[in-house]
Design goal:
503 residues; 13% strand; homodimer; seven-stranded mixed sheet; Aspartate Aminotransferase, domain 2; 17 helices; 16 strands; Aspartate Aminotransferase, domain 1
Chain lengths: 503, 503
């Protein structure tokens, strides 16, 4: 089987090399030939067998499902039993290279052999089906499982955590940890809770329910439950008709690309946004709605892959500290390796750890890391029935092992270089179609010249066998798995070039 | 193996019969002898091997875990590989009969053989590890999976659904479905969304973010994310220090027990509470914060197993309809069979279905059923990355099959009768210790004479091998699995009688 895969790879490299007329081309075929495929028996490339995607089988399944569910957002029905590695197979038999990976939530792609093996273990099977209330009755090996998974990759300086089931619950509960921490500071050391607080909180009133706020950024996406959605400002369709709360919103820097040609303007943009942050904190504190915390993504993903400089984040942390607000970094989409470091905020060289870091998606389980002072000092304050799921943590343990064994962070860095170089070249060749390539690792986006162009690119890529996604108004976002290798990157670039040349 | 189990059962029945001096006794040994155990090789009874619970191994594991997590609410570490059926085994080797089942979330108890078999199937294994973004890329068999699981047990009159990962997300998203429905009614047929709405919602302002409210009940528990927590009023520790919103709260009926002796007072209690509901709706509508919906549990569980009559719920539905508010019944704890019907609200003979029914826990997946008019008419409005988890739905499919095959709803009814009769007898014998036995099916609670007495009962039951839980101020709640059989019920009653006799 392995020999087969090697042959497939060789064929692929040959094909790629033959297609070397491309402007971004001249990839070192020698280097590629040395690269072992990380997933044996992956398809050698995409294969499109229907005249349009979704094809007829997907369409008929959509109609069936529409009898039960709202299905407007469904794009394709996939055959997960046939999907493998970086390739998805749809129910019509189309094989697509997946650079979107379930909205960036598949760290090792599809049916990774090491994950499949997990369920040959009878104890693991029992863990999958005996889901405990983790906050009350964890299993024998829970501490070890956490040490081998989440704690083995904890962000520098953060040694405590709380597990949750999804990204929204992670942020919602991180908010609560921030409120309790803030209130404890207000109360002062040794102070006790008053009867008035205990009674007033039961009826949603002050002082038990204090009017704290969280500062978020325009363009942010932090989830869709009430607290999260109040901090979310990416698209109107997410927020329309939903009651909200008056929380401060600061502008997120909007950079000009290429960065090296706009250093001065971008630094000025940082300065203006940071000034606004501090103004808003003063303003909300003054009107009796103290800013208990600041929530920010290291890269605004859903909002359009908007980046800010390390200096911006360093200064933001200083502003938070100066004003007694907690700094929460939401790594739900950026965490788990796609930027080439395990956590995107590690790129920022912060002088100390952020107060809280939330995660989900590629981490398979939701939750947050935090400084010790953000752990509640009583039980049942940050709590729910499941508090996550050991089945996901067992899988994450294996994912972390594979990431280390296969040097996947290095792979991401290498692969990201190939993508960035290729995209920068294509951007120069087709400035009328794409621009503003930006990213870290393989967490990369580029803009179409407008929304229609972006949509056309995503659509045409699909018909050439590349499954990508959009974000923001006009960006194409790349969110491949950590097992996406340089030969996949080249295949993507070839197909994109072909799309751009036909636009 | 099966013969072994039969012998164990016979031994157990003999022991039970020998203990027949008890006041509630006279259980029909003949009937019990005919009952096949639903789980082969279950322990024949509890076995306590440590002087206290938690024992030394649990305590040392707690200390280890406390280095990583907040652990104040952790009661025991369990060995899930050795737990089976209705019995949990803790890390110290204590075997306990579990009538609490992970806060009521294990429909078939531990390591049910039919669930274990699921993961012998390679396709199922792939479904467990290839978790899709269900709202965009469902798997080949998704509609069939839903039909065989959630739709096979949908509440009468509700033919649509939305899957979510947990109870809080289910309620949060059900709230959003209600707001959208309410706003569409306000807009009127054919009206379009204005630019002002689209822009104002992005900054959390009216008219895009309308100031809708949801009416909830004192004593309610609906979860702990911001929207859910605003509707929750069970315990101060859940709400203290968390910002909240001014939403209307009505009193939930407080009944006197036994019900048959207090018919008039309890009917008057219903009337007063319902009057308050309608007053609050008028009041909040009038002040510009319209009550878009009413959320209520069929039985307030966390709040103390507070029941209300079918007439109360029938009238509540009429009030909701009269005032244009949606009626959301939160069946997160009551759903999935423990009341002897699949959904607790089926006991209420409502003239039509509630508008939305939320679920989680015993259903393994979260989500909600709804009337068609509560489905959004655009995509990405009720949405998140995972939208649930096919792995859980595959398990639920098997759970539903086993419930039907093994007539587990009948088992629950039969078992509930045994428990109710036994508890009523014990309540008469020990009126100084316990009172107010109430319940449907095996979803039963009784009160201790005060909080300390309740705590003593739960603690002493544990040392006799019964793992139960508290709720509200002074209630003991029983939440056994659906495979809890009359012989387990008798064992519980024997132990409880022994505890009460020693108090």
């Amino acid at each position: 089987m392995y020999r087969n895969a090697i042959n497939q790879l060789k064929n692929h490299v040959t094909r790629n090399t033959l297609a070397a007329g491309s402007v971004r081309g001249q990839q070192t075929a020698a280097k590629l030939a040395n690269q072992r495929p990380l997933i044996a028996n992956e398809p050698s490339g995409p294969m499109i067998v229907t005249d349009s995607i979704p094809g007829p089988v997907s369409n008929s399944k959509l109609e069936e499902l529409s009898q039960i569910q709202e299905t407007h957002s469904i794009q394709l029905f996939l055959d997960y039993n046939r999907s493998l590695g970086n390739y998805i197979v749809d129910v019509d038999g189309n094989i697509l290279l997946d650079v979107y990976t379930q909205i960036s939530s598949m760290p090792l792609g599809y049916s990774h052999p090491d994950l499949l093996k997990l369920l040959n273990n009878a104890d693991n099977v029992r863990s999958f089906i005996n889901r405990p209330a983790l906050g009350a009755f964890p299993g024998t090996d829970w501490a070890d499982r956490l040490k081998n998974s989440l704690m083995a990759v904890s962000p520098p300086g953060l040694q405590h955590l709380c597990t949750m089931a999804c990204g929204s619950c992670s942020n919602e509960n991180a908010f609560k940890a921030i409120y309790m921490w803030y209130r404890n500071k207000e109360r002062g050391p040794g102070a006790t809770v008053t009867q008035e607080e205990l009674e007033s909180c039961m009826v949603n009133k002050q002082p038990g329910s204090p009017p704290y706020t969280l500062l978020s950024f325009m363009g942010a996406f932090h989830g869709r439950t009430m607290g999260c959605l109040t901090a979310t400002h990416s698209k109107a369709i997410h927020k329309l008709d939903i009651p909200s709360i008056d929380w401060p919103m600061a502008p997120f820097p909007k950079y000009k690309y290429p960065l090296e040609e706009h250093t001065r303007e971008n630094a000025e943009e940082d300065r203006k946004c940071l000034e606004m942050v501090e103004d808003l904190i003063h303003q909300y504190n003054k009107k009796g709605t103290p800013v208990a915390g600041i929530i920010i993504e290291p890269i605004q993903a859903e909002g359009g892959d908007n980046h800010a400089s390390p200096e911006f984040f360093q200064n933001l942390q200083q502003i938070a500290k100066r004003n007694g607000s907690a700094l929460l970094i939401d790594e739900v989409q950026t965490g788990g390796g796609p930027t080439g470091k395990f956590w995107a905020h590690e790129h920022f060289n912060l002088p100390e750890a952020p107060d809280i870091v939330t995660f989900s998606k590629k981490m398979l389980t939701g939750g947050y890391y935090c400084k010790k002072e953000f752990l509640p000092t009583q039980g049942y304050r940050i709590y729910n029935t499941w508090m996550g799921d050991p089945g996901k943590v067992i899988m994450l343990e294996e994912v972390v092992r594979v990431i280390k064994r296969d040097n996947l962070l290095e792979n991401v860095q290498e692969c990201g270089d190939v993508l960035m170089k290729g995209l920068n070249a294509l951007e120069k060749q087709y400035p009328q179609h794409i621009n503003s390539t930006r990213g870290r690792g393989t967490f990369i986006a580029f803009d179409g010249s407008d929304a229609a162009k972006r949509d056309a690119i995503v659509g045409k890529l699909k018909m050439k066998g590349i499954h990508s996604g959009g974000c923001g108004d006009k960006a194409v976002r790349l969110r491949p798995a950590l097992i996406f290798q340089p030969h996949h990157a080249n295949m993507f670039l070839d197909k994109l070039e072909s799309v751009l040349s036909e636009l």
